[in-house]
Write a structure and sequence with these properties.
This protein has 268 residues and is of the alpha/beta class. Helix content is 34%, strand content 21%.
Amino acid sequence: MDVRGVIFDVDGTLVRGDEPIPGAAAGLDAAEAAGLRRLFVSNNPTKPPEAYEARLARAGIHADADEVLTAGTVTARYLLDRHAADSIAVVGEPGLVDLLGEAGLSVERVGRDGDLRVDPAVLVASLDRRFGYEMLRACLDLLADGDVAFVGTDPDVVIPAAEGDVPGSGAIVDAIANVAGREPAAVLGKPSETAREMALNRLDLPPEDVLVVGDRLDTDIALGARSGMTTALVTTGVTAAEDVASSPITPDYVLDSLAELEPLLAEP
């Protein structure tokens, strides 16, 4: 495998909760031994890169914050490019609201009862553990105005957690889209074009020199397949090996875990 850089997914690939997935350390060691540039890319929008540095450290994995790209940072970049001066309503966790605010955006979190103090120009939908009927009704009212832009942070309907798979941002984005009868103008995170461009810019490599490793066909593998990267699916997360046959997205490799990465990188 002739690559110079690797994009690692996090949840379901390296860790589940704060626990390392068996084989993860071996895969990371193999990438380091091969001298690959690396980037950790997560579709979790609730925490900044610094929190991922600490979380990975708890799992025994060393990563610097500048090696981490999240759906939250990708969403911030998209909004800064297109809605820097706009008022933005957010259905999301406090970590996302803080991240967007620290990026210089004008944001307000939609209240549990659907309350907002301003009329936003943008609605951002994401994982929010308070999400319920009144918030959904508020989103319906907001999006009845066709001038209000609608953006999702990421498409993950379920995410692997310590207690098992749990609902993710995609479930909330889909619920809002269904009642409003409107698809989002953009769904960020993997496999969006914004995420792809940011990842390749961070690695400073062309796509043909990059390997993407992850546990999801529709996000991790799609990110690489759409742009000519080499792709490897690990079956330690939400996707089983038998799912590949029925998917329109085909990885270059299917691995039981990251432990199988070493012989691939050693191939001439």
